[in-house]
Amino acid sequence: MFSSSNSIFLVHSFFPASQLKASRPKKAYFPGKISASYTATENRVFTSTNMASSSPASLYDVLGISMGASGNEIKAAYRKLARTCHPDVVSMNQKETSANEFMKIHSAYSTLSDPSKRAQYDRQLHGHSRRSPLTSSNIASMSGYRPRYSHSGMNWETDQCW
Amino acid sequence: MAEASYTVASDSETIGEDKSSAFPEIAIGIDIGTSQCSVAVWNGSEVELLKNTRNQKIMRSYVTFKDDTPSGGVSSQLSQEHDLLSGATIFNMKRLIGRVDTDPVVHSSKNLPFLVQTLDIGVRPFIAALVNNMWRSTTPEEVLAIFLVELRVMAEAQLKRPIRNVVLTVPVSFSRFQLTRIERACAMAGLHVLRLMPEPTAVALLYGQQQQQSSHDNMGSGSEKIALIFNMGAGYCDVAVTATAGGVSQIKALAGSTIGGEDLLQNMMHYLLPESQTLFKTHGIKEIKSMALLRVATEDAIHRLSSQISVQIDLDLGDGLKINKVINRDEFEEVNRKVFVKCESLIIQCLQDAKVEVEDVNDVIVVGGCSYIPKVKNLVASMFNGKELYNGVNPLEAAVRGAAVEGAVASGINDPFGNLDLLTIQATPLAIGIRADGNNFVPVIPRNTTMPARRDLVFTTCHDNQTEALIIVYEGEEKKAEENHLLGYFKVVGIPEAPKGVPEINVCMDIDAANVLRVLVGVVMPGSRQPTIPIMEVRMPTVDDGHGWCVEALNRKCGNTQDLVTVQKKV
Measured between CA atoms, how close is A11 to chain B, in angstroms? Predict the structure, then answer.
């Protein structure tokens, strides 16, 4: 089933690329002390295995929306994608890939549908790449410097998104 | 297609579904409640509840053991009351399934008018019916299977086709181990479980379908609607918050507890006859009869209190034991105050988890047998500032109707009018995690995580040169590990010797599209990019019926030598 992959983690679909990209925002909807403690190591260790970067990079790309999308547009995009990508609606032999796909979509949605998480994400996206969001988010996750930003709150800049 | 003729399905895998049939079989929906059960099916244009030969849509969930042929509430024509008084009738099995004999819920079932015996050693309780002055032992799975067979036969007779695939509704608070017991009961009845749906999510799906239909009718924009579903039956109370638009229902939060009509009934029986517990301890023929009489009379009184302000109870339990009492509604509500407080707290918790304010809720749906109790309706309504409750669903049929809709959707049935163009995005009802940081439960997948889900967390050793680590997997909400449901355990060996805190032990939990939970553990040493030992993958739950004291045994054997701690944040 996973024969195309050569990494041991991916063989087990252990930490797929999608998860890593979204791993930082995950922190916020996982309240409690645990989440804060594990984000630091997670990226460092496992990003290296393989960034199967066939997927679009920014969370906006994942949902197929523009960066200025409204809350309702985000919701609508998420529902639309869920209707085609959720494991319950695909055929039997696609369940596994669609589960991964859907987790990625949901992860993007849960970040972008939360104003503060979205603001934080936008800042990260802007601040670290003028070139292209694709490289920036990959580098961000690979070099493991994301946690440094995890405690910055909202400011006037990010508030403007809303 | 049929190339894999020599493969053997792994013991831990369920057998794949048969995809060969050109016409998809529509899975039926079954609601096996603690006290009542029903079956429904999508008939091509709408949901239809199936009736038994006595023209009943809702049947009692009980099995009467007579000689060698047990018969259930679906087909049995006999007077239930008589069998109940003789101790031959077993019921309430949904409260007992998958529980060990140290469970308080099992203990509170000991005053049922049949035998529920506990040894308090963490094994399954001994359950038996009195047949011809002999205790005939049975199990919750067997009892459920008996009436599942009856439901199947009934459905097959009406639909004129063999039935195999089913969608069942289950309580939110069921652990994954309990779900395996339900699957076992279905397998015993020759049924294949296509999906197990938490009860309020089945109602959510039905609600989603209704919203979809009405937005078609109005040509409306189909804006998002948020509903709170409160479902209280005889055995369990469940709450869900769902957001629905365009046929997609997203379960935002779930909350559930083992409280229900049975608790109301027991509290009332205790109120009417405080010494009943000790009086009926011996479980002789006479005691069984008295217990059953008290139960029937109290249940009847509670039902009548839904429409009357007070009821008169006149009861002769034999041996000079008589009850003559007037019970009014206030008394009933006071006796059960704790149950109602718990109901409120479940609603509050569910709203908080869903991050939804009371004002954001468009519809409040109250279903289940207890929804007929004025206090239940009032307490829910008052939490939503007296909002009128949603009246678009039948309280007793909502769950089974939702299950039937899901059965059609999951069977891949298309409806030309788009009535099955539906999707429910489910969330995990309970957190899943491992024991770490001493005796704490550390969730890896928190509750109300959208499924399918994959989460991971890094742990480390708590002793220098610790080469082995015990992974004990629990499901639940309690802080202390052992207060949660045990799902399984295994040991990671071959961790390279290193000072404590150095090896990184990655615990990943994956719930796939079929709601199968896998726990994966990999060990990585700093500086390395590859796991130092093969990753372990274990499908959970692995525990069996007698798991009550496994962890104590493990503690005795290993102490804390193989414990783990969460990785502390480096500031």
Answer: 10
Query: Where do the domains of chain A lie?
Result: 13-150
What mean pLDDT do residues B524-538 have?
90
Omega before B429 within 30 of 0, i.e. cis: no
Q: How confident is the model at residue B415 (pLDDT cuts 50, 70, 90)?
A: confident
Cβ neighbours of residue A110 closer than 8 Å, sequence gap 6 or more: A25, A29, A117, B450
Superfamily of domain B431-566: Substrate Binding Domain Of DNAk; Chain A, domain 1 (2.60.34.10)
The residue whose two tokens read 């399934």 is B97
The region, left, alpha or beta by phi > 0 then psi within -120 to 50, assigned to residue B492 is beta
Going from N- to C-terminal start, the domains of chain B cover 28-194, 261-335, 431-566
In angstroms, the CA B180 to CA B186 distance is: 10
Q: What is the mean pLDDT of chain A?
A: 59
Residue among B148, B209, B151 at smallest CA distance from B406: B209
Cβ-proximal residues to A3 (8 Å cutoff; 6+ apart), any chain: none
* Cα(A44)–Cα(B569) distance, integer angstroms: 14
Site from A15, A41, A73 to mutate, B interface, most B CB atoms within 10 angstroms: A41
Whether residue B15 is predicted with pLDDT greater than 60 in this model: the reply is no
* B203 and B229 Cβ atoms separated by less than 8 Å: yes
Mean pLDDT across the stretch A66-92?
89
User: pLDDT confidence of A150, banded at 50, 70, 90?
Assistant: very low
Contact B246 A89 (CB under 8 A): no
Using one digit for the tens of pLDDT, what is the confidence trace for B160-210? 999 999 999 999 999 999 999 999 999 999 999 999 999 999 999 999 999
CA atoms lying within 13 Å on the CB side of residue B175 = 25
Chain B: give the shortest CA distance to residue A38, in Å: 6
- pLDDT above 60 (res A56): no
ipTM: 0.84
Contact between B512 and A95 using a beta-carbon 8 Å cutoff: yes
Residue B248, min C-alpha distance to chain A (Å) = 6
Mean pLDDT, chain B, whole residue set: 90
Chain A residues with CB under 8 Å of B524 CB are 45
Q: Which fold has domain B28-194?
A: Nucleotidyltransferase; domain 5 (3.30.420)
Q: Give whole-number Cα distances, B1 to A5, B4, B13, B19, B376, in Å.
A: 25, 8, 20, 10, 55
Q: Which residue has better confidence, A158 or B47? A: B47
* Homologous superfamily in CATH for domain B261-335: ATPase, substrate binding domain, subdomain 4 (3.90.640.10)
Q: What is the mean pLDDT of residues B5-11?
A: 54
Helix locations, A48-155, DSSP H: 59-63, 71-85, 95-112, 115-127, 133-143
Question: The CATH number of A13-150 is which of 3.40.720.10, 3.40.30.10, 1.10.287.110, 3.40.50.300?
Answer: 1.10.287.110
CA B120 to centroid of chain Cα atoms: 23
For residue B468, the model assigns a pLDDT of: 93
Give pLDDT tens digits for B290-348.
999 999 999 999 999 999 999 999 999 888 889 999 999 999 999 999 999 999 999 99
Q: A150 versus B345: which is more confidently predicted? A: B345
Say what the pLDDT of residue A142 is: 35
Which of B17, B442, B531 is nearest residue A34 as measured by Cβ atoms?
B442
Q: Is A122 on the interface with B (CB under 8 A)?
A: no
List Cβ<8 Å contacts ≥24 apart for B315-323.
B317/B273, B317/B290, B317/B293, B318/B286, B318/B289, B318/B290, B318/B293, B319/B286, B319/B290, B321/B273, B321/B279, B321/B290, B323/B272, B323/B273, B323/B294, B323/B297
Up-side HSE of residue B378: CA atoms within 13 Å toward CB?
7
Are A45 and B524 inside 8 Å of each other by CB? Answer: yes
